[in-house]
Design goal:
Blueprint: E1 12-29, E2 32-48, E3 70-71, E4 75-86, E5 93-99
Antiparallel strand pairs: 1-2, 1-4, 3-4, 4-5
């Protein structure tokens, strides 16, 4: 259930489930090598929210083929439930909560 306390100028509301992949990349140079962590969206699914009596009920499904949560040294997968208000020509208002997806 998504509860919005201030709907002023929030725009279109939507909720989603997002999996981000974090992975290390090593770059070799003349001075040695550097390791940095990059990230990419592995999976995301969004749906518009409709108000019902002041609340926004939502059901989000994680597909069976999607990766499970994993926190490794070189590779990780992090899942979040996200609610956002989409605004034209402005930054989206957003709130998220990490969830742990088991295999």
């Amino acid at each position: 259930m998504v509860v919005v306390t201030d709907t002023g100028n929030i725009g279109e509301l939507e909720a989603g489930i997002v999996c981000r992949e974090f992975y290390d990349e090593t770059v070799s140079t003349n001075d040695g090598s550097t390791r940095s962590t990059l990230d990419a969206v592995e999976y995301e699914s969004w749906q518009p929210l409709q108000c019902m009596e002041g609340e926004y009920p939502v059901t989000l499904t994680i597909p069976a083929h999607a990766p499970y949560s994993y926190a490794g040294d070189c590779l990780s997968f992090r899942w979040e439930i996200v609610a956002r208000g989409r605004k034209k020509l402005a930054l989206d208002a957003q709130a998220s909560q990490e969830v742990w997806v088991r295999p």
